[in-house]
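Worked example

This section walks through a single chain of length 189. The input is the sequence exactly as stored; nothing has been trimmed or padded.
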Amino acid sequence: FNQLRKLKAQYPHIKVLWSFGGWTWSGGFGQAVQNPTAFAQSCYDLVEDPRWADVFDGIDLDWEYPNACGLTCDSSGPASIKNMMQAMRAKFGPNNLLTAAITADGSNGGKLDAADYGGAAQYIDWYDVMTYDYFGSWAAQGPTAPHSPLTSYPGIPAQGFNSADAIAKLRAKGVPASKLLLGIGFYGR
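Given that input, the structure is written out below as C-alpha coordinates.
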Protein backbone atom coordinates (compact mmCIF):
# COMPACT_ATOMS: atom_id res chain seq x y z
CA PHE A 1 0.00 0.00 0.00
CA ASN A 2 2.89 2.34 0.70
CA GLN A 3 4.22 1.83 -2.82
CA LEU A 4 0.80 2.76 -4.21
CA ARG A 5 0.74 5.87 -2.00
CA LYS A 6 4.14 6.89 -3.37
CA LEU A 7 2.98 6.28 -6.93
CA LYS A 8 -0.15 8.39 -6.38
CA ALA A 9 1.95 11.18 -4.84
CA GLN A 10 4.18 11.17 -7.91
CA TYR A 11 1.24 10.93 -10.34
CA PRO A 12 -1.76 12.59 -8.62
CA HIS A 13 -4.22 11.78 -11.41
CA ILE A 14 -3.58 8.02 -11.39
CA LYS A 15 -6.55 5.88 -10.35
CA VAL A 16 -6.07 2.71 -8.31
CA LEU A 17 -8.84 0.12 -8.09
CA TRP A 18 -9.09 -2.92 -5.85
CA SER A 19 -9.95 -5.84 -8.13
CA PHE A 20 -11.95 -8.79 -6.85
CA GLY A 21 -12.23 -12.18 -8.55
CA GLY A 22 -10.37 -13.28 -11.64
CA TRP A 23 -10.17 -16.79 -13.07
CA THR A 24 -8.94 -18.32 -9.82
CA TRP A 25 -11.07 -16.39 -7.31
CA SER A 26 -14.51 -16.12 -8.95
CA GLY A 27 -16.05 -19.19 -7.33
CA GLY A 28 -17.69 -17.31 -4.46
CA PHE A 29 -19.50 -14.62 -6.46
CA GLY A 30 -22.67 -16.65 -6.98
CA GLN A 31 -23.11 -17.14 -3.25
CA ALA A 32 -22.10 -13.56 -2.42
CA VAL A 33 -24.65 -12.01 -4.78
CA GLN A 34 -27.50 -13.89 -3.14
CA ASN A 35 -27.44 -10.81 -0.90
CA PRO A 36 -25.99 -8.08 -3.14
CA THR A 37 -26.39 -5.36 -0.51
CA ALA A 38 -24.38 -7.32 2.06
CA PHE A 39 -21.76 -8.18 -0.56
CA ALA A 40 -21.45 -4.52 -1.55
CA GLN A 41 -21.11 -3.54 2.11
CA SER A 42 -18.33 -6.10 2.70
CA CYS A 43 -16.44 -4.90 -0.39
CA TYR A 44 -16.86 -1.27 0.65
CA ASP A 45 -15.64 -2.02 4.18
CA LEU A 46 -12.49 -3.61 2.77
CA VAL A 47 -11.73 -1.01 0.07
CA GLU A 48 -12.47 1.91 2.38
CA ASP A 49 -10.70 0.52 5.45
CA PRO A 50 -9.15 3.55 7.20
CA ARG A 51 -5.68 1.96 7.00
CA TRP A 52 -5.65 2.29 3.20
CA ALA A 53 -8.77 4.22 2.16
CA ASP A 54 -6.57 6.95 0.63
CA VAL A 55 -5.07 4.45 -1.82
CA PHE A 56 -8.16 3.27 -3.71
CA ASP A 57 -10.43 5.14 -6.09
CA GLY A 58 -13.00 2.39 -6.47
CA ILE A 59 -13.52 -1.27 -7.19
CA ASP A 60 -13.17 -3.61 -10.17
CA LEU A 61 -15.23 -6.81 -10.23
CA ASP A 62 -13.80 -9.63 -12.34
CA TRP A 63 -16.46 -12.34 -12.09
CA GLU A 64 -15.62 -15.22 -14.42
CA TYR A 65 -18.52 -15.76 -15.18
CA PRO A 66 -22.03 -14.69 -14.09
CA ASN A 67 -24.58 -17.43 -14.79
CA ALA A 68 -21.98 -19.40 -16.79
CA CYS A 69 -18.90 -21.58 -16.36
CA GLY A 70 -15.26 -20.60 -15.91
CA LEU A 71 -13.00 -22.44 -13.45
CA THR A 72 -16.27 -23.10 -11.59
CA CYS A 73 -19.87 -22.88 -12.80
CA ASP A 74 -22.41 -20.34 -11.61
CA SER A 75 -26.19 -20.58 -11.83
CA SER A 76 -27.18 -17.36 -10.06
CA GLY A 77 -29.37 -16.23 -12.97
CA PRO A 78 -29.14 -13.59 -15.69
CA ALA A 79 -29.99 -10.68 -13.35
CA SER A 80 -27.21 -11.45 -10.86
CA ILE A 81 -24.64 -9.10 -12.43
CA LYS A 82 -27.15 -6.26 -12.73
CA ASN A 83 -28.23 -6.72 -9.10
CA MET A 84 -24.60 -6.82 -7.95
CA MET A 85 -23.63 -3.68 -9.87
CA GLN A 86 -26.70 -1.81 -8.67
CA ALA A 87 -25.83 -2.63 -5.05
CA MET A 88 -22.16 -1.72 -5.59
CA ARG A 89 -23.04 1.65 -7.11
CA ALA A 90 -25.50 2.38 -4.29
CA LYS A 91 -22.80 1.63 -1.70
CA PHE A 92 -19.74 3.11 -3.42
CA GLY A 93 -21.62 6.20 -4.64
CA PRO A 94 -21.00 8.33 -7.72
CA ASN A 95 -17.48 9.48 -6.81
CA ASN A 96 -15.84 6.04 -6.74
CA LEU A 97 -15.03 4.13 -9.91
CA LEU A 98 -16.97 0.93 -10.50
CA THR A 99 -15.62 -1.27 -13.30
CA ALA A 100 -15.79 -4.89 -14.37
CA ALA A 101 -13.59 -7.21 -16.38
CA ILE A 102 -16.00 -9.31 -18.44
CA THR A 103 -16.11 -12.14 -20.92
CA ALA A 104 -15.60 -11.47 -24.61
CA ASP A 105 -17.52 -14.56 -25.75
CA GLY A 106 -19.55 -13.13 -28.62
CA SER A 107 -20.88 -16.50 -29.76
CA ASN A 108 -24.60 -17.18 -30.05
CA GLY A 109 -25.78 -18.51 -26.68
CA GLY A 110 -22.34 -17.87 -25.17
CA LYS A 111 -21.30 -16.21 -21.95
CA LEU A 112 -22.37 -12.70 -23.01
CA ASP A 113 -25.88 -14.07 -23.54
CA ALA A 114 -25.97 -15.70 -20.09
CA ALA A 115 -26.10 -12.49 -18.01
CA ASP A 116 -27.63 -9.01 -18.21
CA TYR A 117 -24.53 -7.01 -19.11
CA GLY A 118 -26.71 -4.39 -20.78
CA GLY A 119 -28.79 -3.83 -17.65
CA ALA A 120 -25.72 -3.67 -15.44
CA ALA A 121 -24.03 -1.09 -17.68
CA GLN A 122 -26.05 1.81 -16.23
CA TYR A 123 -24.29 1.33 -12.88
CA ILE A 124 -20.68 0.99 -14.03
CA ASP A 125 -18.09 3.41 -15.31
CA TRP A 126 -16.77 0.91 -17.86
CA TYR A 127 -16.33 -2.72 -18.82
CA ASP A 128 -12.87 -4.13 -19.50
CA VAL A 129 -13.75 -6.65 -22.23
CA MET A 130 -11.27 -9.55 -22.02
CA THR A 131 -10.67 -9.98 -25.75
CA TYR A 132 -7.83 -12.45 -25.36
CA ASP A 133 -7.32 -16.13 -24.55
CA TYR A 134 -9.93 -17.16 -27.08
CA PHE A 135 -7.72 -20.10 -28.03
CA GLY A 136 -4.78 -21.66 -26.22
CA SER A 137 -2.98 -24.68 -24.83
CA TRP A 138 -5.89 -25.66 -22.56
CA ALA A 139 -7.47 -27.16 -25.71
CA ALA A 140 -5.08 -30.12 -25.86
CA GLN A 141 -6.31 -31.22 -29.30
CA GLY A 142 -6.08 -27.70 -30.72
CA PRO A 143 -6.45 -26.24 -33.14
CA THR A 144 -3.70 -23.69 -32.93
CA ALA A 145 -5.24 -20.26 -33.45
CA PRO A 146 -4.61 -16.60 -32.58
CA HIS A 147 -5.38 -16.07 -28.90
CA SER A 148 -6.65 -12.52 -29.45
CA PRO A 149 -8.21 -12.15 -32.93
CA LEU A 150 -9.57 -8.68 -33.67
CA THR A 151 -12.04 -9.96 -36.29
CA SER A 152 -13.32 -13.30 -37.52
CA TYR A 153 -11.51 -15.08 -40.34
CA PRO A 154 -12.11 -18.10 -42.58
CA GLY A 155 -11.61 -21.24 -40.53
CA ILE A 156 -11.87 -19.62 -37.08
CA PRO A 157 -12.34 -22.53 -34.64
CA ALA A 158 -15.33 -20.92 -32.85
CA GLN A 159 -17.70 -18.33 -34.29
CA GLY A 160 -18.00 -15.23 -32.08
CA PHE A 161 -14.57 -15.71 -30.50
CA ASN A 162 -13.11 -12.40 -31.65
CA SER A 163 -13.09 -8.79 -30.46
CA ALA A 164 -15.39 -7.35 -33.13
CA ASP A 165 -18.17 -9.86 -32.42
CA ALA A 166 -17.90 -9.36 -28.64
CA ILE A 167 -18.12 -5.57 -28.90
CA ALA A 168 -20.99 -5.77 -31.42
CA LYS A 169 -22.91 -8.10 -29.10
CA LEU A 170 -22.42 -5.81 -26.09
CA ARG A 171 -23.55 -2.80 -28.15
CA ALA A 172 -26.64 -4.74 -29.30
CA LYS A 173 -27.42 -5.43 -25.63
CA GLY A 174 -27.48 -1.69 -24.96
CA VAL A 175 -24.01 -1.13 -23.55
CA PRO A 176 -22.83 2.34 -24.65
CA ALA A 177 -19.60 2.37 -26.65
CA SER A 178 -18.21 4.88 -24.16
CA LYS A 179 -18.30 2.16 -21.49
CA LEU A 180 -16.35 -0.47 -23.45
CA LEU A 181 -12.58 -0.87 -23.20
CA LEU A 182 -10.90 -3.45 -25.39
CA GLY A 183 -8.62 -5.77 -23.46
CA ILE A 184 -5.25 -6.47 -25.02
CA GLY A 185 -3.03 -9.40 -24.11
CA PHE A 186 0.57 -8.25 -24.37
CA TYR A 187 1.82 -11.80 -24.72
CA GLY A 188 1.71 -14.68 -27.12
CA ARG A 189 0.79 -18.33 -26.74
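What to look for: The mean pLDDT is 96.
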